[in-house]
Write a structure and sequence with these properties.
Order of helices and strands of chain B: EEEHEEHEHHHEHEE
Strand order of the largest sheet of chain B: 6-7-8-3-9
Number of strands of chain B: 9
Mean pLDDT of chain A: 89
Shape of chain B: globular
Radius of gyration of chain A: 18 Å
Strand content of chain A: under 5%
Number of helices of chain A: 10
Number of strands of chain A: 0
Number of helices of chain B: 6
Largest sheet of chain A: none
InterPro entries (chain A): Cyt_c_biogenesis_CcmB, Cyt_c_CcmB_bac
Distance between the termini of chain A: 29 Å
Low-confidence stretches of chain B: none
Radius of gyration of chain B: 17 Å
Oligomer: heterodimer
Main location (chain A): membrane
Function (chain A): Required for the export of heme to the periplasm for the biogenesis of c-type cytochromes.
Shape of chain A: elongated
Structural class of chain A: mainly alpha
Keywords (chain A): Cell inner membrane, Cell membrane, Cytochrome c-type biogenesis, Membrane, Transmembrane, Transmembrane helix, Transport
Largest interface: A-B, 22 and 26 residues
Pfam family, one (chain A): CcmB
């Protein structure tokens, strides 16, 4: 347990010391959302209509973009081998890595999403649901994506393989996430969609680390 | 203590790197694996650590297969690949702290270990300011703070200068005298008592 916390602390500290690279996903997210109104014209009703889907798509792509670095460095410098051969469990390592990666890349997205939603004229009542759907949905994207990353980490050229591998599994999250916000923007209860997201979240949190750890073992033994 | 490989063979793709390779190592002995580039030295080391599975044959630690008794085996093993498992943005001391958490600790303090490898003056400097040789020394320092009997090292002397090589040899000698075991690859001449060194040539 203590090694888990010290690993999370190490990751946060490293992220702080390389602030420049870490902000990439956030900048991408902001740019996509802010460029959209310029591209399609700033009609308030139209923007409010597309806001839920737009924010969710941008968050999904930003998360996907950030995934590449998840295990790459630890794989290349041999840290992953050290973990595999240490008496610690690899599942704990994966857990810690995923938690810190979410804190570093996804939490900032969730934090700026309400502001971006307001610039798109999303009704203020739907903002709470937007936050909640992103809080539940982005970890799912990360957990599912991590399985793909772990499988492709040992490969030399895998840039296009990863999106192909994980995008099909992202579709349900996108559908329920965007529809939760949309439904609540038109004044209905989004409980159903949020429950499904919460279910996926629990599944990802409990099962994905085991799959990721097994996939990493395969990558390390190459 | 007893470490043994029986009839190992290894394939990369369709090419057989080596087959029916056996050796036996007792406490206080070093196995030096020699061979040209691509002869399968690193592959053999990875088999010996248990990271990779052999095509055939088995590896025994205290007469038990390292895959059956992997918890016991891993708690006795220090592995260092040809890369240095270090983070550029962390200081020497922080890196050593992370590395030391991977293995059972002995009573030597991290600062003393850094002094030992002549990095005492740079313990708070970030590793990105280090030269390749200093990084290697820092990785070697992680061996000093671990309470493990078996060291498996892939080119430990790579990037080290003359003093560094001598330093490594004295660390290795000390480890062997304390009944440790070392399995290593090298392209450099190794200056250690001949009665402690076994040689294994690959790809001949």
């Amino acid at each position: 347990m203590s090694s888990l916390w010290s690993l999370i602390r190490r990751d946060l500290l490293l992220a702080y010391r390389r602030r420049g690279e870490v902000g990439n996903a956030l900048i991408f997210f902001g740019l996509v959302v802010l460029l959209f109104p310029i591209g399609i014209g700033a009609s308030e009703t139209l923007l409010a209509q597309i806001a839920p889907g737009l924010i969710w798509i941008a968050a999904l792509l930003a998360t996907l973009m950030s995934l590449d670095s998840l295990f790459k460095e630890d794989y290349q410098d041999g840290t992953l081998e050290q973990w595999t051969l240490s008496p610690h469990s690899l599942v704990a390592f994966v857990w810690a890595r995923l938690i810190s990666h979410w804190l570093i890349t996804a939490l900032p997205l969730v934090a700026v999403a309400p502001v971006l939603a307001l610039t798109l004229n999303l009704p203020a009542d739907a903002i709470g649901v937007l936050l909640l759907s992103l809080l539940l949905g982005t970890p799912v994207l990360m957990f599912v994506g991590a399985i793909g990353v772990a499988l492709t980490t040992g490969l030399q050229k895998s840039s296009l393989l990863l999106p192909l591998l994980v995008l099909p599994f992202y579709i349900p999250v996108l559908i329920f996430g965007a529809s939760a916000v949309e439904v609540s923007a038109s004044g209905w209860s989004a409980a159903g969609q949020l429950y499904i997201l919460a279910g996926l979240f629990v599944l990802g949190l409990t099962l994905a680390p085991f799959a990721v750890a097994s996939a990493l073992k395969v990558s390390v033994s190459q | 203590m007893h470490y043994q490989a029986k009839q190992l063979s290894c394939k990369r793709g369709r090419k057989t790197l080596f087959s029916e390779l056996s050796f036996e190592l007792q406490a206080g002995q070093l196995l030096l694996i020699e061979g040209h580039n691509g002869a399968g030295k690193t592959s053999l080391l990875k088999l010996l650590t248990g990271l990779r599975m052999p095509e055939a044959g088995e590896i025994l630690w205290q007469s038990r297969s390292i895959h059956d008794a992997h918890n016991d085996f891993r708690s006795k093993l220090s592995w260092l690949g040809h890369q240095n498992p270090l983070k550029d943005e962390q200081s020497a001391l922080e890196n050593l702290h992370t590395l030391s958490s991977f293995r059972p600790r002995n009573s030597i303090s991290l600062t003393d270990a850094l002094q030992e490898v002549k990095l005492g003056h740079a313990k708070h400097a970030q590793v990105k300011t280090f030269s390749a040789g200093m990084k290697r020394r820092l990785s070697l320092a992680s061996l000093l703070v671990a309470n493990t009997q078996l060291w498996i090292l892939d080119e430990p002397q790579a990037a080290l200068d003359k003093d560094g090589v001598a330093l490594y040899e004295s660390l290795a000698k000390q480890h062997l005298e304390n009944d440790g075991m070392i399995v290593m690859t090298s392209h450099h001449p190794l200056n250690l008592p001949a009665d402690r060194v076994q040689r294994l040539a690959l790809g001949v």
